[in-house]
Amino acid sequence: MHDSPFDLLEELLGTIAKTLVDNPAEVQVHAVQGQAATMLELRVHPKDVGRVIGHHGRIVRALRTILGAAGMKLHKRLRVEILA
After folding, report:
1. Spatial strand order in the sheet of 37-43
2. How far apart are CA 73 and CA 60, in angstroms?
3. In the CATH scheme, what is the homologous superfamily, with its name and number, of domain 5-83?
4. What tens digit of pLDDT does each residue of 35-81 get?
5. 2 by DSSP, 3-state: which?
6. Least enclosed by CB within 10 Å: which of 10, 12, 35, 43?
7. What pTM did the predictor assign?
8. How far apart are CA 62 and CA 15, in angstroms?
């Protein structure tokens, strides 16, 4: 059971990222909550960063759009950052 809606969003981002990368065991998502926004930090293997970003940033842009829309429903801004 999830403690908060943000836990569900963390799980969603992690699940999507694991399907995109070659090293799914190294995918980690961590939420850092601020007053105005919540940052979801997606950590992947350095060789998988390009797979998560996508050609011309299309994949990461789509992830940010989906999670941003979910954040609007929660009345909170969400940011997605990719870390290697």
Report:
1. 28-33, 37-43, 77-83
2. 20
3. K homology (KH) domain (3.30.300.20)
4. 888 999 999 999 999 999 999 999 999 999 999 999 898 888 999 99
5. coil
6. 35
7. 0.89
8. 15
* Residue 83, token pair as written in the block: 């870390």
CA–CA distance from 11 to each of 19, 25, 78 (Å)? 13, 14, 14
Q: Please give the Cα distance from 62 to 24 (Å, whole number).
A: 19
Residues 6+ apart with CB under 8 A from 5: 70, 74
pLDDT in tens, 44-57: 999 999 999 999 99
Helix (H, G, I), strand (E, B) or coil at 45: coil
Residue type, 74: L
Single-letter amino acid, residue 52 = V
